[in-house]
Amino acid sequence: MKTRKVGIIGVGHVGSHCALAMILQGACDELTLVDIDKQKAKSQAIDCMDTISFLPHRTIIKDGEIDDLTDMDIIVISVGNLTADKNRLNELKGSIEMVKSFVPQIVKNGFKGIFVVITNPVDIVTYYVQKLSGFPHNRVIGTGTGLDSARLRKVLSQTTNVDPRSIQAFMLGEHGDSQVANFSTGTINCKPILDYLKENEDTIGKLDLDQLEHKVAQGAWDIYAGKNCTEYGIGCTCSDLVQNIFHNERRVIACSAYLQGEYDYEGIYIGVPAIIGKDGLETIIELPLDERERTKFKKSCEIMSSYIEMAKNY
């Protein structure tokens, strides 16, 4: 029986909670934690191991070095920090420098698995991890708008009093300010969102969809204002993606995927729904967009393209 192995590079607030979420959900059998601060990685591994007696799944957690990740099935990249200026794009130079320092080494050592990228700005960093690794695009996936889509379902749930698991809706585009809510094809209780909201206007009121979209996009900064980081939601987002791969679930989730003509764009990674399975990204789901969504998605793609060009100088 094959042991499912995951390595996490960067175990600060985000990486450590990715580890915890995977342990709690039994997503993998072995976890190796790597950080530039070796004592932090060691301490996080010990702290995580202290939970095992309370859980239904046994996971071996240890700290290690980049060279210990060669036989991993999945490597999660979660280096870097969220900036206080409310613009993930301003993290680009530092993030590119960090991934350049270890991705080529990992590939040279013989890693043959799948990269899952969280480091911001995640769409652009995912693009460069793929370039640095030379891996097929299906084996380099960013968390993208996976967390934003969960926030959209949360906001709609709070507004309509419908369980978020009965809501199907995605945020598209950049994991950042230019993301767009796909209201036109989403559903609530199996009904189109726009129809459901209109039918229930007498109980939930007339909603401002642009305001709801803005609330989702600003979700991270509302959290950051009180604790200077986000960690729980992205931890579960990462674990969900990892489980999709290990269990070959072939479930549709939002992630940062490489466009090759889908949505009339190509050559960039950006947040879209996709089918994820044992080989990574299988198929991008191309949703029909209304005029508002097409315009905003186009703008988001153009922003990503411009920053990809900018990063070539780093």
From TrEMBL:
Binding site for NAD(+): 10-15, 35, 40, 101, 118-120, 143
Single GO term (MF): L-lactate dehydrogenase (NAD+) activity
GO biological process assignments: glycolytic process; lactate metabolic process
Enzyme Commission no: 1.1.1.27
Signal peptide positions on this chain: none
One Pfam match: Ldh_1_C
GO cellular component: cytoplasm
Top EC class of this enzyme: oxidoreductase
Compartments reported by the entry: Cytoplasm
PROSITE patterns listed in its UniProt record: L_LDH
Keyword set, alphabetical order: Cytoplasm, NAD, Oxidoreductase
Gene3D superfamilies for this protein: Lactate dehydrogenase/glycoside hydrolase, family 4, C-terminal, NAD(P)-binding Rossmann-like Domain
Active site, UniProt feature: 175
Function: Catalyzes the conversion of lactate to pyruvate.
Name of the protein: L-lactate dehydrogenase
Organism per entry: Cetobacterium ceti
Lineage, top ranks: Bacteria, Fusobacteriati, Fusobacteriota, Fusobacteriia, Fusobacteriales
